[in-house]
Amino acid sequence: MKSKSLLAAILRVGVLSATAILLSVGAYAQNGAIRGSVTVKETDGAAPVPRKDVQIVILRQDIKGRYTTKTDKRGEFFYSVPAFSEYVVAAFGPGLKYKVMEPIKIQGGDPFEIKIEMVPGDGATPTDAQINTEARSTGSTPATPTTREMTAEEKAEVAKAEAEKNKILENNKKITENNASVKKHLEEGNAAYGRKDFESAITEYRAGIEIDPLQDVFWGNISSALFQLAASKFNAKQKDEARKLFGEAGEAGMKAYEIEQTLPAEKRGANNYKKKAADSFGALGRYFFDSEGGQKAAKLYLELSQAATTPKDKATYMLLAADNYRYGNILDQAETLYREVLKGDPENLDGMSGLAVTLLTSDPEFTNKEKAGEALTLFETVASKATNAQQKQDATTNADYIRTTAKELVRPGKKKKG
User: Fold this and answer.
1) Which of 172, 230, 316, 359, by CA, is between 20 and 30 Å from 380?
2) Per-residue pLDDT tens for 74-101?
3) Least confidently predicted of 151-155, 226-230, 254-258, 270-274
4) How much of the chain exceeds pLDDT 70, in percent?
5) Is 148 helix (H, G, I), strand (E, B) or coil?
């Protein structure tokens, strides 16, 4: 059979599926605080008693914001919130009638003091809509804060919130810079790929991976670029370099697939990373008779065949799996898969050719007359029906070889000569 130059396969270049997400700093703008106490008056005339573990909800009114805490063993709570905003505070808990307080305005600086007196009730939990409605129904102007020096503990909490705000701002700055760099490397890599400057594309994709190694699109794109570069090296007779690059392309494709599996189900599969890996490993088997590469490709193609939703795709991937087992000299498995394809489609010429070559390869001395007879019959069938000139020529050449070399053969379904 004639050797052919490797044609560079067309592999799709992807775009970023996502970029790093900026963290919200809304809760950590210039800070104020709400400090409160909750008491319960069990009966008329009874003295109010502090109650622990009462649930506190704080709803911001100027923009959407919801914060929760609960009272400590002294019936007190403290919560740092963005300053210069209006809030509604509600309290509820088991065995209590929930209480909605009038709106308050936080000006910053010292914490706003609020006292909540509750009575026994059904323990209902109010919805945010109920809380806001009841607060607005009071028709009151937001209360202004009373002032009191913050305790050391409260000052520490405010300082902690400020430190968290500064940390988030710094992280957001880095994320913004990284997102811009990631986008730039992707765009420049794709542009280089488009003009077939695969080495520059690989450099750009690798730079993107350095910034964000969990972007599946970079790994998928570098797999495509490595495959194309390997193909050009192969066609230029630089076989050792091509072999190395095909292997790297396969590994990059698998890395992209592994990262993709961590994404939500609806975001998986569109880039077909598994096929990119299989095609790259398959090139090792087909063009370098690399048994390990062929077996990796065969395994991946079998998985693709099992996942395929149409008979045509199932057969196509199964044929590729069989081919790669044959390239890797795993002939028994190759024969089994070719026969499986022909069982579903007896007229599949690629299946016939693959099975015939496998039979011929497994018994080059024609010691098994049945194998020789079946291989000859298959080659003759392909030669008579093929519309592809190369496939017809290869089948004709192999059929002639068997007829002139085999001393004895048995056609399928016929008795042995002599």
Assistant:
1) 316
2) 999 988 888 788 999 999 999 999 999 9
3) 151-155
4) 83
5) coil
Residue of 232, 238, 332, 330 whose CA lies nearest to 290? 330
- Quick one: which of 161, 129, 120, 132 has its CA closest to 34? 161
3-class SS at 69?
strand
Judged by DSSP in three states, 64 sits in: coil
Q: At what angle do helices 389-405 and 369-385 cross, to 10 degrees?
A: 150
Q: Tell me: domain 180-405, CATH 1.25.40.10, correct?
A: yes
Strands (E), 41-149: 49-50, 55-60, 65-70, 76-82, 85-92, 99-100, 104-106, 112-118
Torsion sign, CA atoms 222, 224, 225, 227 = positive
- Contact predicate 348/316, CB 8 Å: no
Output the CA–CA distances (angstroms, integers) from residue 75 to 81, 106, 153, 229, in the order listed: 20, 22, 16, 70
Angstrom distance (rounded) from CA 339 to CA 356:
11
Q: What percent of the chain has pLDDT over 90?
A: 59
DSSP β-ladder status, 112-118 and 31-40: parallel
Record the pTM: 0.60
User: How many residues are there in the chain?
Assistant: 418
Tell me the residue type at 93: G
CATH 1.25.40.10-classified regions of the chain: 180-405
List of long-range contacts for 152-156, beta carbons under 8 Å, 24+ apart: 153/78, 154/33, 154/35, 154/78, 154/111
**CA-closest candidate to residue 10, choices 217, 244, 279:** 279
What would the DSSP string read from start to end of 10-37? -------S--PPPPP-GGGSSEEEEEEE
- The domain made up of 30-144 has a fold known as Immunoglobulin-like (2.60.40)
Residues 6+ apart with CB under 8 A from 64: none
Which part of the chain is CATH 2.60.40.10? 30-144
